[in-house]
Amino acid sequence: MATFSHHEIRISLDTVRDGRDTLKCRYLMDYIHSGKKNELGTAMNLFVQNAVLGHNSIFVLPEKQFEDSIKSDFNAFHGEWQRLRWNSPEISLNYVKEVKAAEAYETKNFITLYAKTHYYTTGDHGLDWMEYAVFSKRTCKKVAHWYDLFSDTAAVMKYAHEKMKKEKFIMFGYSLPDGGWFQGKGFYLTDNFAVNPNGILFYYNVWEIAGYDEGITQLILPYGEIKQWLKNKIP
User: Of 132, 136, 110, 139, which Cα lies nearest the Cα of 197?
Assistant: First the structure.
């Protein structure tokens, strides 16, 4: 595996205007000095870049340009905070933005990265978002869909559906939507997944398949229970 070079930009501004207003903005990411010929490193850097900056680019920025773009992102966040302070001096403003991207798991055939964002700009609660990306060591590319890992997707869907119902304590004769899950869309396996040492982890962010109070949902399919459908018996 390519060696990660760790970059951290930490900017914090607090106790502003009688200590009522705070601005905290932090970026933390792993970035690979991979060289132009390292396709795996390039693919992983592209995910980190797009996740941190909120872009959907198909080209990796030079490292200096990437860091400059992060600083521009902070300046925009800082500018929004300053404008609200000026226009609404009676409101206490606490702004927080944290973005982290790093390696989550590594197995024999795959590397999984994650990007986590916490964003708060007033209100009862902020926005938290987790995104996973799985990369094949063999193809040096991102695995686009969960079903690319399996030979029998129908069997996996059936097994995962029953497992989710069991974990959510859905009684016989009732469905997940009856319990408040997957309402209006039906059960599905998300492409936000990770390949970890124990199984395939599917991650649903807040609001994605249930109300806010339910929080995040994680469904893990252990290798011992899905090995007959896996293309790589040892991920």
Answer: 110
